[in-house]
């Protein structure tokens, strides 16, 4: 073999060794992200790494890819997990804001029962009541989050829209704010607000799961009315009859609400219907004076013989009728068909009926202007209840 042949063979062996070494090195390192094409799946020409043989070679691992001038940026790591704080709409649903329209009438009816006109301290009592009511709503969902996960998974806490810790923190902050507003209204108001807040927390954290639940809720609502009387500077004992009427109504509605997700029993809504009918009867104007054909002076009174309403009784009668119509119809439907949807409607009707009840209590106490202002909240409560459930 000539010298030129030997040189050619040596060159061929050298080239083969170099190519083999480069091929094994390319297969041994991970491919850059763009080796098989662009991120959107389109090919990217002009790269040596786009060799179809190398693009199907198994990648060996541990070493990091070499940066390339035109390589795609590394993906951004996911942000750290944060507790869900929810949107304003989520909090509206959690706190059941349409039900707040039923709260101001408690303090207004309490002030009227104590013989006082609403003033600045009454407004502070209303603010305290609103805060404590919302605290109870947030705490209620926090305590029921496991049960709601099975029965009402769409609620803000079981759906994950609001973190349980955020709801509990809101309940604590609202309770503190409610007590602070009551303190601003005076020591008598704070004296009532403290047991009211304690009753709210005791109900949500345990009492509502046994027989003491409805009485505890009734006590909380009665104390809320007494709070208005105490803040207004009137005699608290004068507000006791009105507080008892509101408490009896609350007791009946709360008893129905305990089965709003199961239904199945007509006895409880039937009993609630009887109780609320008795409340409506008590709200009606007192009888009415008997009209005699001839009075003591011998002059015949105007009008035919019979019963005539007492002064101011027309407003009381109208408000009592409005209360009865609001609460009785959904309860009657739940009696005829105690299904969960109709039971929930009965509970919602019972909550909205508190507004005409409060107005009728104010009218009975001789405060027609307060009664009319309270009754004006009913259309707003009905309107917003169509968008957000109050139960």
Report on the structure:
The protein is mostly helical and 391 residues long. Helix content is 61%, strand content 2%. The chain is built from 16 helices and 2 strands. The protein has helices spanning 3-28, 52-55, 88-95, 104-113, 120-143, 145-151, 164-185, 187-205, 213-231, 240-257, 267-283, 313-336, 340-352, 354-364, 368-375, 377-385; strands spanning 289-291, 306-308. Strands 1-2 form a two-stranded antiparallel sheet. The relative contact order is 0.11.
Instruction: Encode the helix/strand succession as letters.
Output: HHHHHHHHHHHEEHHHHH
Average pLDDT, all residues = 79
Strand content: under 5%
Distance between the termini: 102 Å
Spans of 5+ residues with little confidence (pLDDT < 50)?
1-72, 288-307
Number of helices: 16
Tell me the Rg in angstroms.
37 Å
Gross morphology: globular
User: Count the strands?
Assistant: 2
Helix content class: 55-70%
Q: Identify the strand order in the major beta sheet.
A: 1-2
Helix and strand composition category: mainly alpha
Largest sheet entry = 2 strands, antiparallel
């Amino acid at each position: 073999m000539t010298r030129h042949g030997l040189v050619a063979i040596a060159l061929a062996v050298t080239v083969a060794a170099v190519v083999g070494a480069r091929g094994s090195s390319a297969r041994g390192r991970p491919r850059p992200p763009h080796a098989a094409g662009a991120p959107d799946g389109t090919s990217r020409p002009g790269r040596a790494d786009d060799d179809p043989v190398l693009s199907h070679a198994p990648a060996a691992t541990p070493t990091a890819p070499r940066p390339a001038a035109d390589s795609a940026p590394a993906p951004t790591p996911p942000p750290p997990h944060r507790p869900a704080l929810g949107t304003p709409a989520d909090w509206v649903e959690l706190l059941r804001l349409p039900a707040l329209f039923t709260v101001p009438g408690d303090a207004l009816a309490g002030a009227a029962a104590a013989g006082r006109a609403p003033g600045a301290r009454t407004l502070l009592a209303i603010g305290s009541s609103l805060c404590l009511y919302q605290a109870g709503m947030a705490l209620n969902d926090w305590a029921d989050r496991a049960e709601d996960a099975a029965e009402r998974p769409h609620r803000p806490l079981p759906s994950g829209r609001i973190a349980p810790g955020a709801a509990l923190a809101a309940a604590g902050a609202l309770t503190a704010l409610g007590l602070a507003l009551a303190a601003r209204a005076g020591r008598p108001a704070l004296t009532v607000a403290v047991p009211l807040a304690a009753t709210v927390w005791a109900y949500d954290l345990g009492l509502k799961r046994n027989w003491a639940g409805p009485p505890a809720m009734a006590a909380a609502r009665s104390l809320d009315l007494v709070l208005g009387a105490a803040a207004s500077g009137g005699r608290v004992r004068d507000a006791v009859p009105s507080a008892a009427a509101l408490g009896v109504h609350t007791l009946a509605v709360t008893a129905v609400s305990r089965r709003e997700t199961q239904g199945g029993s007509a006895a409880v809504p039937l009993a609630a219907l009887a109780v609320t009918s008795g409340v409506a009867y008590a709200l009606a104007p007192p009888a009415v004076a008997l009209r005699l054909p001839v009075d003591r002076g011998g002059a015949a009174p105007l009008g035919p013989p019979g019963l005539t309403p007492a002064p101011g009784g027309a407003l009381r009668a109208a408000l009592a009728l409005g209360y009865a119509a609001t609460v009785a119809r959904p309860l009657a439907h739940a009696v005829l068909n105690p299904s969960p949807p109709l039971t929930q409607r009965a509970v919602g009707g019972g909550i909205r009926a508190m507004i005409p009840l409060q107005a009728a209590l104010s009218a009975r106490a001789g405060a027609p202007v307060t009664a009319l202002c309270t009754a004006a909240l009913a259309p707003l409560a009905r309107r917003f209840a169509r968008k957000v459930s109050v139960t």
